[in-house]
């Protein structure tokens, strides 16, 4: 049987990806340019007995998804820059309480209200450093409508597998453009569900590390009763200030992501085998970069593209290895050098890093990148 | 035979953090008696709180307990209730947590009339941080941030809840201990968003700054200012000056949020 094909907007694809992954709860607040995610979820969730709620503000939306997640539901919220700033308080809560949830954040210009309808990639640092304290961060930066669907599914898988919030961050171009999408059949993409506790309710502890770095999470309203707090906690979930426990728990929370980068980090290498100039790009900017690479190759310039799909954890190993091979990196991005700084950090001076930065609400076009390739080759 | 509170307390979690003379323990005992009266199941009952002294209450209770972020209890609880409407959801917290940083979540939970019960322990102060004035600190009172007297007018929590759309609003005091469980039980039984404000005391950070010589004096004040709503009907405005009404202040029947959303699901499935 032929697969279902559609002409879909990026935000609509994110919502469809969430439904494919088994999302049954959405809590949100209207904000441009992510609102279509909420609109689709408000239509589709009740059809399957799921729940949609429009909360009174962004913080409330984040709170509602964490509450719902603790009852065992797969949960989603969607927002954009100013909303992401507000949600940071409870993204930190989800990190320390180790509550799975997915946040679609469509990147628009900032800071503050910025340019609500213009594209940007300036939230990528906020995804890792936005909430206070040490915590794990997973952030995916898809580059097409199809990929936004698939990466939203993967975001749910990572959230459930690692008991942590996961961000899907399309820039406004990817979120608002319309493209052909081929819907995967049920079962075609992997869907990971939360690990249920294997011990009796009496034995259960919500942060029991004898089960490894990601202890099973029970659900409220079942036979399992437990306590959840935003305070540093012991394995039983109750607050503690015992130095050794706090240190161990903080380290474990970060380690459960950092020790699994090979499972989490995805990227695409294009024409890199003999490349002398490597472009490192993500989101819609990577599409311009691919075009520029093709043009450069036609002109006999050995250019290639390293496309970041997983922004956090940053593909450190891969960039470091590339730095030993290429003469120069070019890092086009719709901000003033956020990914560029990371590439410089990983390159450790072994290759020059040339940024192309736009924060004027206009996309970076292939010509601009091609020009830079010729300049640095 | 004396009431067995231990049945509902998590083993090993006492003593609590509250200071001697604090009324929060009286409220917790009232809540336990109400839960016992209604026969609520531990596995099917979530107790959700924000941040502050009062918000430490869930940790002592042997239920599904969620100690959230400052002011956010109502929003977290809304997620729990929406996802599992069959659960009993009880919110607890203080006046600063609920009416300042949590004010927006509070009024919208009232507006939605979502079937949860919110117990606000109003001790007129931010106790945990050392006695800063809250939206419920009386005008003129002393706090660590109003040493010259509080210039702010105070919220009337019950009026705020009624105005925002709560369909059951009651008020009690920590002095009237035996009334607390009755008010809470009636609130939990009410279908819709119910608010129970318990006037409470903080001898440590409020009493000592405001010339209360003892906890007993603070408790006696609660006794003196409280007037049951029925008794107030027979009193003149002059007699009611400086008094606070207690009992069930407001009650109406209105469709509750999760029942209404169940209808949304029915319509969407057609």
UniProtKB/TrEMBL annotation, chain B:
Thiamine pyrophosphate enzyme TPP-binding domain: residues covered: 51-198
Gene Ontology molecular-function annotations: oxidoreductase activity, acting on the aldehyde or oxo group of donors, iron-sulfur protein as acceptor; thiamine pyrophosphate binding
Native source organism of the sequence: Geomonas terrae
Protein name listed in UniProt: 2-oxoacid:ferredoxin oxidoreductase subunit beta
Alphabetized UniProt keyword annotations: Oxidoreductase
InterPro entries the record matches: 2-oxoacid:Fd_oxidoreductase, THDP-binding, TPP_enzyme_TPP-bd
Entries under PANTHER family matching the protein: 2-OXOGLUTARATE OXIDOREDUCTASE SUBUNIT KORB-RELATED (PTHR48084), 2-OXOGLUTARATE SYNTHASE SUBUNIT KORB (PTHR48084:SF1)
Entry annotated with the keyword Oxidoreductase: yes
TM helices/strands, residue ranges: none
Gene3D superfamilies, sorted: 3.40.50.970
GO biological process, one term: cellular respiration
């Amino acid at each position: 049987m032929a697969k279902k094909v559609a002409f879909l907007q990026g935000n609509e694809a994110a919502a469809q990806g969430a439904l494919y992954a088994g999302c049954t709860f959405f809590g949100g607040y209207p904000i441009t340019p992510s609102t279509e995610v909420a609109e689709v979820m408000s239509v589709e969730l009740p059809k399957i007995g799921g729940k949609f709620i429009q909360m009174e503000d962004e913080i409330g939306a984040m709170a509602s998804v964490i509450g719902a997640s603790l009852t065992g539901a797969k949960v989603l919220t969607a927002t954009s820059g100013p909303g992401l700033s507000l949600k940071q308080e409870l993204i930190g809560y989800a990190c320390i309480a180790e509550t799975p949830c997915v946040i679609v954040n469509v990147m628009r210009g900032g800071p503050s209200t910025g340019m609500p309808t213009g594209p940007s990639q300036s939230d990528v640092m906020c995804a890792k450093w936005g909430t206070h304290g040490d915590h794990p961060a997973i952030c995916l930066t898809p580059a097409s409508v199809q990929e936004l669907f698939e990466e939203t599914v993967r975001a749910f898988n990572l959230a459930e597998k690692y008991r942590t919030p996961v961000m899907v961050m399309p820039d406004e171009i990817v979120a608002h453009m319309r493209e052909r999408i081929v819907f995967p059949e049920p079962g075609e993409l992997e869907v990971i569900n939360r690990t249920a506790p294997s011990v009796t309710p009496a034995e259960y502890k919500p942060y029991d590390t004898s089960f490894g770095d990601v202890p099973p999470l029970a659900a409220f309203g079942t036979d399992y009763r437990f306590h959840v707090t935003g305070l540093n906690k012991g394995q039983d979930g109750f607050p503690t200030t015992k130095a050794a426990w706090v240190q161990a728990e903080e380290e474990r929370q970060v380690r459960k992501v950092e020790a699994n980068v090979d499972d989490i980090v995805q990227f695409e290498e294009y024409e890199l085998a003999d490349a002398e100039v490597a472009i490192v790009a993500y989101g819609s900017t990577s599409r311009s970069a691919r075009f520029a690479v093709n043009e450069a190759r036609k002109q006999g310039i050995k250019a290639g593209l390293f496309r970041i799909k997983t922004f956090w954890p940053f593909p450190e190993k891969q960039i470091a290895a590339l730095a030993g091979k290429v003469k120069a990196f070019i890092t086009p991005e719709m901000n003033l050098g956020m990914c560029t700084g990371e590439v410089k950090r990983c390159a450790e001076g072994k290759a020059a890093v040339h940024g192309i930065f736009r924060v004027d609400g206009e996309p970076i076009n292939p010509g601009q990148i091609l020009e830079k390739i010729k300049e640095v080759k | 035979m004396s009431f067995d509170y231990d049945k509902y307390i998590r083993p090993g979690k006492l003593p609590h953090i509250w200071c001697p003379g604090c009324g929060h323990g009286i409220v917790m005992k009232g809540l336990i008696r109400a839960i016992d009266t209604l026969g609520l199941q531990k596995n099917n009952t979530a107790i959700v709180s924000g941040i502050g002294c009062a918000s430490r209450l869930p940790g002592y209770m042997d239920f599904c307990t969620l100690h959230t972020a400052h002011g956010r209890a109502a929003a977290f609880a809304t997620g729990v209730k929406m996802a599992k409407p069959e659960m009993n959801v009880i919110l607890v917290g203080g006046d600063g947590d609920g009416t300042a940083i949590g004010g927006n979540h509070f009024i919208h939970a009232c507006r939605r009339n979502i079937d949860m019960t919110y117990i606000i322990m109003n001790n007129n102060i931010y106790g945990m941080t050392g006695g800063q004035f809250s939206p419920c600190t009386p005008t003129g009172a002393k706090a660590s941030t109003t040493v010259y007297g509080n210039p702010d007018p105070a919220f009337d929590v019950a009026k705020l809840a009624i105005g925002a759309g709560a369909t059951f609003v009651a008020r009690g005091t920590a002095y009237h201990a035996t009334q607390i469980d009755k008010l809470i039980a009636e609130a939990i039984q009410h279908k819709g968003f119910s608010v129970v404000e318990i006037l409470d005391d903080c001898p440590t950070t409020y009493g000592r700054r405001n010339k209360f010589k003892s906890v007993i004096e603070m408790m006696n004040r609660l006794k003196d200012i409280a007037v049951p709503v029925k008794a107030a009907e027979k009193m003149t405005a002059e007699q009611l000056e400086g008094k606070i009404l207690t009992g069930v202040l407001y009650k109406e029947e209105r469709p509750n949020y999760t029942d209404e959303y169940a209808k949304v699901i029915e319509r969407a499935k057609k």
